[in-house]
Amino acid sequence: MTFKERIAKKAAEQLVPCSIINLGIGIPTLVANYLDKDAYYLHTENGLLGVTSVAEEDIDPLLVNAGKLPVGEAAGASYFHSADSFSMIRGGHIDVAILGALQVDSKGMVANWAIPGKDIIGVGGAMDLLVGAKKIIITTNHVAKDGTPKFVKECTYPVTSTRQADILITDLAVFHWKNGRYELTELMGDTSLKDVEENTTAFYKVSEQLLEKRR
Amino acid sequence: MVINKISTAEQVIMKVQTGDTLMVGGFGLVGSPLTLIDALTRHDAGNLTIISNNVGEAGKGLGLLLRQDRLKKAVGSYFTSNREVAKWYNDGLLELELLPQGTFSEAIRAGGAGIGGFYTKTAVGTDLAAGKETKLIDGETYVLEKPLKANVALIRAWKADLKGNLIYYKTARNFNPLMASAADYVIAEVDEIVDERDLSPEEIVTPHLYVDAIVESRLILTREGVVERDI
Predict the structure, then answer these.
(1) B189 and chain A in contact, CB less than 8 A
(2) Are A119 and B100 inside 8 Å of each other by CB?
(3) Residue B46: which residues within 8 A CB-CB, separation 6 or more?
(4) Is ipTM strictly over 0.85?
(5) Cα distance from B212 to chain A (closest Cα, Å)?
(6) Any idea where the domains of chain A sit in the sequence?
(7) Which of A20, A211, B93, B156 maximizes the CB count within 10 A of its CB?
(8) What's the confidence (pLDDT) of residue B231?
(9) Annotated domain spans of chain B
(10) Is A159 an 8 Å CB contact of chain B?
């Protein structure tokens, strides 16, 4: 399993059966591979509830997800226009949105739509999803390609919303937003607490249960 | 009298005037009115403001009009899908207005429904709400967004009857039904023109009162890309 697949599998474990889920582009898309197809309903903001995978020979160029990748149509699926789709999102009808991030900070803020100094020409549905989904799970590498931490004290990239992300899952650890701060609840693979500490500038607390387990 | 709204792309595209604001349907090229855009590339209207989620892709769909320097401004949510947009924008040749996709959709819906604006929580506290009016409603902050309207809408549907009742195909629906309601003149490009008895009243997504003209599509999106089909 690649680290991306490990993150996606961990995200899938956080989901309650029968949930309505919206998956973002990248690692979030992989989460679908670890879900029981009959127990979850996948929503895509370009207008489909009931997204499923599609065999190569059945690809329809007019049936895609928000990442413009070909998808299939599950039994009981429905199509709707974009305003209805975002009514579902803003109106609180989506149980969980799983999204990628450029940065997440100590206050739970997420930056995932723009990089300072680069052209800011796309936002898509990121801001609507962060505001409207009942639960937000962020899946990302713990550090950027150049090794700098992505879980930071305060976002230096433009934030996507003023709403906190509920769960942060990286290749190193799992953090839950609890009582106004992130709690490290689980270490991924053979990661040590020291590994996390060395690659994080954000403030977080290690959960009592995890400390107990490691004693 | 039997109503018949069928026209040709070449004839009906003359409705577009220099300086107009156009709505153009499609999520990327999916559900994009490719035949009407192609006709527009051979019509001389310029200085256009385009309301569309994307400016097509590089050299495809609306990307063709960008290369012809026909666009003054684009209003949408995701211009990243055409890498040439950033260059035109940075060279000062194209204005951009970026809206969150849900706000963009709702602004078109509002424009078509005679709503003067709406308050949304989306973008509150972010760069995209800068300079916009905010309001505290039941303890939560909302930002005021204005409706979007256009002179002409170019949309794509799957089937139409002669009156202009429309149904759509899978995720090619996206922004098209919204745009059908929000422009003074609405041109629908469709893959099939059928007898009105072949469409059930319950399945109509866009009732005919929104549609002014129907054009049979010549260009379609296939697995091999945009191709001309045999009619």
Answers:
(1) no
(2) no
(3) B18, B69, B70
(4) yes
(5) 20
(6) 3-214
(7) B156
(8) 66
(9) 6-116+148-224
(10) yes
Helix, strand, coil % in chain B, rounded to nearest 5? 30, 30, 40
- Chain A interface includes B137 (CB < 8 A): no
Q: What are phi and psi of B66, to 5 degrees?
A: -60, -45
- Residue among A119, A127, A159 whose CB faces B86 most closely: A119
Cβ–Cβ contact A125 with B under 8 A? yes
Does the B6-116+148-224 domain belong in CATH 3.30.420.40? no
Q: Do B171 and A89 touch (CB under 8 A)?
A: no
pLDDT tens track of chain B, all 231 residues? 678 999 999 999 999 999 999 999 999 999 999 999 999 999 999 999 999 999 999 999 999 999 999 999 999 999 999 999 999 999 999 999 999 999 999 999 999 999 999 999 999 999 999 999 999 999 999 999 999 999 999 999 999 999 999 999 999 999 999 999 999 999 999 999 999 999 999 999 999 999 999 999 999 999 999 999 976
Asked whether the beta carbons of residue B223 and residue A132 sit closer than 8 angstroms, the reply is no
**CA separation for the pair A31, B20 (Å, rounded):** 44
C-beta of residue A180 within 8 angstroms of C-beta of residue A109: no
User: Does the domain spanning A3-214 belong to CATH 3.40.1620.10?
Assistant: no
Q: Rounded to 5 degrees, what are φ and ψ at A202?
A: -70, 160
Q: Give the closest of A47, A73, A160 to B173, CB-based.
A: A47
Give B178's contacts in chain A (Cβ within 8 Å).
Answer: 81-83
B58 lies within 8 A of chain A by CB? no
